[in-house]
């Protein structure tokens, strides 16, 4: 039996008491196939070579680790931004979709499905499907389709079919339900590219491994710049938690590195309009795994709120629930207003317009204390172009 | 002996299990629907506990869950509705639902309260065998409830045997790879059901998904002990203001 550590779930997919594969029998064969084969495929030298080449030549990796001097002066420490916003398609999401499309090819799948909230993962999936000439169907909540028209257009231009999720609250969680239902109905030819570190085992581990390139690069780049591999803190936003999982991964077992996960507090943690799952959630089961989940007393899933569509999810990945429960990561939150302020601050101080999601991570800097020799890494998970309509409302 | 077991000892062909959503079409319909089903010839009732995110269900059953939840249905209310059922009815009753609401209620308390009101078995499609064996199965058995696993055309022979050995009551054979209420029909299920029949399973087999009328019910019966109808019945209850009449008319078209 595989030993469970922070970096590796046990053979049933558990990180502590969270994880597992709570799926109906209709999904068993596909999930079992993935579970049996994903590690062998990922560790195969020819797979690694192809993945590394695409990450370098197509996605634009390694992304810079940038010492933000004016921001550093503002906070009295050394702040490094991991520039995932410079990846192709504008966010870290492409790290995972490139990995999974190569995996789908190895599994002989001819049809790709995905869920998307704001559309970033949908665009990253449509992109790699175009790259490989594979059919792509993206499920997106009907409400999100209305709210995120430019990303819908991008997906369509890339050749994907965008299917509105009309059930439930018509947002990300329902798009995920519809993608899972599609997979149940197409057991032979379809691979489901989940966009975050959620879903049944082995998805949380698999997506974490594909995103772990972020912390692998941080370690090497920090060593080159400072002589030490280990930052004092790594700060990342958490919706489902894929960029945080990737930014934390190679530091999980380095106890001296402080890991800071920043959730979306929406209008305030106790406002009833929030997405701060670690504060508001209880253990529960959604989308095939046990984790922390925002829900009513009767176990019905609650619709969260955040200004950032990418953090607007009622759960968090089981790895993060475990990091929260064991205290390995510090969980903070930022309100809609605080995130917007952090975005404007970064734009003015460094000439970088961050995504609203990443702005939550930046906002946490105001609530952490540093000494002047610290090395603080913030994962700048995505760029802000997609959020201009929101930012425009705040420009005076 | 459990009500389900004694049913199959009395009758092992053309057993009809009807699915309905608790608290649907009206909040207080539950017991009226169960009694009407018993009166008009159903053999088993599978009562769905509504959930906000029913992964294995198609639009019709999702919609019935949404309506039921909107009318305030909860597991607690369901047990209140069922508390006098056994003074009026002896039909085998199975609760079907998803894990999350059940674990929030408290898994052990759920099993105890279900057994206390006379529920006979459980179908929890997202409870996997590993968690069943290590944690939940013993609690279910302790309270004398049957537990029914699903198998599909994709399930290997070895796994069918394994899930059969963990199940009591009957085994639920999903007729095609789909969510409930899909338009895939029974036509392709023949070879699969014949394969199950030849495996000489411990439990009786009921076929579900795609059974909607007399023809599909009869067809399901050729290689199995009976069938489960869900979506077609939920549709028949949509907008019904006389549950007994809707049940009578529906069953007249099947039996």
UniProtKB/TrEMBL annotation, chain A:
Family, per entry: Belongs to the TrpB family.
Segments forming domain Tryptophan synthase beta chain-like PALP: 59-382
Pfam families (alphabetical): PALP
Modified residues (N6-(pyridoxal phosphate)lysine): 93
EC class: lyase
Catalysed reaction, written as an equation: (1S,2R)-1-C-(indol-3-yl)glycerol 3-phosphate + L-serine = D-glyceraldehyde 3-phosphate + L-tryptophan + H2O
Protein name stated in the entry: Tryptophan synthase beta chain
Presence of keyword Amino-acid biosynthesis: yes
TrEMBL record, chain B:
Pfam families: Trp_syntA
GO MF term set: tryptophan synthase activity
Species name: Terrimonas ginsenosidimutans
Top enzyme category: lyase
Keyword terms of this UniProt record: Amino-acid biosynthesis, Aromatic amino acid biosynthesis, Lyase, Tryptophan biosynthesis
Reactions accelerated catalytically: (1S,2R)-1-C-(indol-3-yl)glycerol 3-phosphate + L-serine = D-glyceraldehyde 3-phosphate + L-tryptophan + H2O
Active site: 46 (proton acceptor), 57 (proton acceptor)
HAMAP family: Trp_synth_alpha
Domain of life: Bacteria
Subunit-level organization: Tetramer of two alpha and two beta chains.
Family named by the database record: Belongs to the TrpA family.
Protein name, as recorded: Tryptophan synthase alpha chain
